[in-house]
Amino acid sequence: MLFTIFAILTVAGAAAAMSLRNLVHSVLALTVAFAGLAAVYLHLGAQFIGLAQILVYVGAVAILIVFAILLTRDAGATSQSILSSSWIGNGTVVLVIFGILAWAIHHSATSQRVVLPQPEASMQQIGNALMLRFALPLEIIGVLLTVALIGAVTIAMREKKETR
Amino acid sequence: MLGEGIAKGFVETARNFLGSYFSKDRLTTVQFPEERAPQIEATRDFPFLVYDGDDWQAGMRCVGCQICEKECPPKCIYIEKSKDKKPDAVGKPQFYPAVFNIDVSVCMSCQICVEVCPFEAIKMDTEFELSTDDRFGGLLWDKARLSKSNEYYRKVHPTDAAVSDAILAEEKAKAEAKAKAATESKANPALANAPQAGSEVPSTQ
Amino acid sequence: MGETADQFFVTLQHWLVGHAPASLQPILSSLLSVVAILGVFALLFAITTVLERKGLGRIQNRYGPNRVGPFGFLQPIADGIKSLTKEDIVPHAADKVVHFLAPVVLVLAAFSLYAVLPLGRNMVLANLDAGVLFFFAVSSVMELTIFMAGWSSRNKYSLLGAMRAIAQMISYEVPLILASVTVIMAAGSLSTVAIVEKQAGYTGILPHWFVFTPWGFAGFVLFMIAATAESNRSPFDLPEGESEIIAGYYTEYSGFKFALFFLGEYLGMFAISGLGITLFLGGWAAPFSFLAWVPSYLWFFAKLLGMIVVFIWVRGTLPRLRMDQLMNFAWKFMLPMALLNLVTVAVWHFLPQGVLRWIVCGLMVVVPYVLLGRGLTRGWKLEKRVYRFAE
Asked: Which of A73, B10, B33, B187 has its CA 20 to 30 A from that of C59?
């Protein structure tokens, strides 16, 4: 039952993010979708992923999107309609594809597999895995982030020099 | 070193905080309705009429000369002279004001009325808690409200009162000397034409 | 005797919950804890507003509020009545839904921070395995609400204030988290309960608190500076101080919503002080072993009151930092110090116990501080101010 609530919250947030006219409203709805996803993770017992989802997505990515919107375009209401002119045909195609996929998944082997026991994923194990087995990907991601940071600083610095 | 200034700041603030419980220097608030800050002697707020002795009507120094009415910049004084005379502070029979009104809401405390008064009759008071809820007459003061005794004047402005008393005493002495000379010349008509040693100053009032 | 006083609230809760059917008991127990937290910290907020005003007043050579109640201590009631009865003005062009939601979500997030703070022995609402991570995750939600508040007012000054507030909070999150990571490394766990229990021992009469180690002291100072910046408190209150000059992100709020913003800000301050106490000052542990008979929750709140006093003291002493000074301080001073602190705690962990590790780690903390301080302040000269038009 709890999962249903979180799922509805997430899907509603995502749907609102797509269909709201005001851009900042859709960002906030997207944030609700992120939070719903984090709730699903926490419900599954994955504490680290759930909390990292909130920390990273809600705390940083949403703010990043918001900054990007505000610094680049006018966040007023869009003048045109949300639905395109041929929404009936497109909607029908989407529903048909969804029906086919749902039937296929329901009748395939994956829906009848045995549920495995929940794997142990405590903080200790995640930390161990990150530091021992996945140390190289961690370092590469760190290098990537540092490159991004340096790039951002360089771009900002150059702009400052140009305007002077 | 970094942080030194901040540490000094903290010490200063702590000293202020703790000192405020012990010394008056570090807690200078005067809790207004219960306490009053001491006023300096030269404080001036609104005028009052001085009277000598106990009876405010008999002892009033004001002779209704209307000089202050004419000199008042916002014209807040209204005087009506009386028809009869009474003796003034020096002893000479003078008119007195039958009506003397000051509109205190107009008065700007410039003290010009005090400076031009030849009779030391109007002086500045130090009272400031004069709010009233009577919008149409509460700040229009009449003769009775404005009269305060010379004892009161000595209390609020001791130095000025001493000067004022000295001036009045000198005038009184001169007037008495003139009166004595007049009675003496009346008693001795032979001495009336001879120059007197005592009367050296012609009256200039 | 000390044991029963210490566990008084726990036994009370168990007794109250025992009256309910077994299926409802966990929910009821959590509900009781939640109600208790709400009540206690709202009361603490009320007391803090008076303490702050009176404390600041005394520092500034004046009385604080002293008319309402004995020595003014019923002032929060008067403030509460005022904020409840003021007209709730929403600007015509404001975004009504977001404008309404911003203070609500702020207070929600601020209250949920208390779930992972151990207020006493066995007195934590949610013993999460990743308690500290939960804390930082929820405090990053608070930043988003500030943006919501600033943007929904449709006021360019509000928006500017909100942007600056978010920039400040994001910049200071990095040293905050890095300072906490040192504690996590030393304790070996992200759970707040485990961190407090690691600090609960005594050698002789001296406690094992992390603040009494070189890296712990540096980490504590960094943490508290970053905490002051996170809760938008003086001297980092440029976002809200601007409201006295131009506008701030909660200019367009009046009445109870304004009070909710203040509530959220103060609750955030208490929560982050609570986390600082948990991480560095030993949580609910007594400072000396002979004082361990005093109940644990009393120690926690005593330490919290001490931190509040320090916050008020700092507010009364230091002038407000300008935005560029603030950002420079975060990125150029606090971040390097926090990174060096990480190395220091690793060195501390691997050196054997004794004087050597104290000396080495002490030098590793003090020398970079002095050098960095000197390097950053080298360009500062106090010049005589020249006025173009006045002479």
From this structure: B33
Q: What is the pLDDT of residues C199-224, one digit of tens each?
A: 888 887 788 889 899 999 999 999 99
Residue B89 tokens, joined: 């502070």
User: Which chains does A contact via 3+ CB–CB distances below 8 A?
Assistant: C
**Residues A132, C108: Cα–Cα separation, whole Å:** 38
Any domain includes C351 = yes
The answer to whether C106 and C145 are in contact (CB under 8 A) is: yes
**Total residue length of chain B:** 205
Residue C257 lies in a domain: yes
User: Do the Cβ atoms of C147 and A52 come within 8 Å?
Assistant: no
| Cβ neighbours for C364, distance < 8 A, ≥ 6 positions apart | C214, C340, C343, C344, C347
Residue C338 domain-assigned?
Answer: yes
Question: The pTM is what?
Answer: 0.84
Instruction: Give the tokens for residue C339.
Output: 């990174």
Place of tokens 């180690």: C213
Tell me the average pLDDT across C343-349.
93
HEC states along A86-97?
CHHHHHHHHHHH
Q: Do B72 and B100 meet the contact criterion of CB atoms below 8 Å apart?
A: no
Cα Rg for chain C, rounded, in angstroms?
A: 23
The dihedral through the CA atoms of A26, A31, A32, A38 has a sign that is positive
Nearest CB neighbour to B13, from listed C62, C316, C370: C316
Q: How far apart are the first and last CA of chain A?
A: 60
In a domain, C71, yes or no: no
**H-assigned helices in B20-119:** 67-71, 112-116
Q: Which domain holds residue C186?
A: 88-371
The angle that helices C214-230 and C256-280 make with each other, rounded to 10 degrees, is 170
ipTM above 0.90, yes or no: no
Residue contact C133–A122, C-beta within 8 A? no
- pLDDT tens string B135-150: 888 899 999 999 999 9
CA distance C187 to chain B (A): 30
Residue with the two structure tokens 């505000």: A70
Residues 24-53 of B with CB under 8 A from C: 26-29, 31
Sorted by where each starts, the structural domains of chain B and their CATH numbers stand as 47-164 (3.30.70.3270)
Mutate to test the interface with A, among C136, C143, C144, C328 (most CBs of A within 10 A): C144
Residues of C in contact with B29 (CB under 8 A): 61-63
Distance CA A26, CA A14 (A): 9
Q: Do chains A and C touch (3 or more CB pairs under 8 A)?
A: yes
